[in-house]
Amino acid sequence: MSDIINIAIDGPAGAGKSTIAKLVAKKKNFIYVDTGAMYRALALFCSRNGIAPEDEEKVIENCGKCDIKIEYKDGVQYVILNGENVNDFIRTEEISRFTSMISAYPKVREILLDLQRNLAKENNVIMDGRDIGTNILPDADLKIYLTASVSARANRRYKEQCEKGYDVDLEEIKKDIEDRDYRDMHKEVGALKVADDAVTVDSSDMSIDEVVAEISGLIDNIKK
Ligand code: DC
Fold first, then answer.
1. What's this model's pTM, rounded to 2 decimal places?
2. May I ask the CATH architecture of the domain 6-219?
């Protein structure tokens, strides 16, 4: 048995997966792998080439032209798309919506499968996504399903956007979260679901520190 430790964190958008996974990775000296960023890089490439997300054939053809590499500097993950660091371009609302649509195509998911599995083979990772525990790393040492109610997630996002000075509508944010959940959970391949052996953590009424402490405790109890 290898000494490598793999932790999978799945859950809906806005549950705090990346915030929590980053903090836990730092605390435990693991590599944080953000798989959503890989899908976002593919979406960026298609979007830059004027492809419509509904055009499955063209999306697949374009994704086939993408070379995605992942690099780490001081614990920060950089997504390198055909040689370019695209971290600063993949977090817009437009790319979020685009990504949500193209990540439903099975062929698009296939493109990223080996990259994700190879990172986990060679490193202690905490990998966040939607199908990590159920499909990418079925033998992960620990699987977490991190969730929060729609209203808790919407309130957090509303607060974040208001703090950035954006004029946003709470009901619209809620609707957007519900739509995204629906798309995430009803994919033909890679749908978001709770793995049979996952530990569910509901962060609705928990602080970030509390969630980090709970997951760190679960990691400490892993038996190799
Ligand atoms: O985690 P995120 O919001 O950055 O993910 C962006 C999109 O990619 C989101 O719509 C879900 C999708 N995704 C996926 O289908 N599978 C993953 N492993 C990670 C993300």
1. 0.93
2. 3-Layer(aba) Sandwich (3.40)
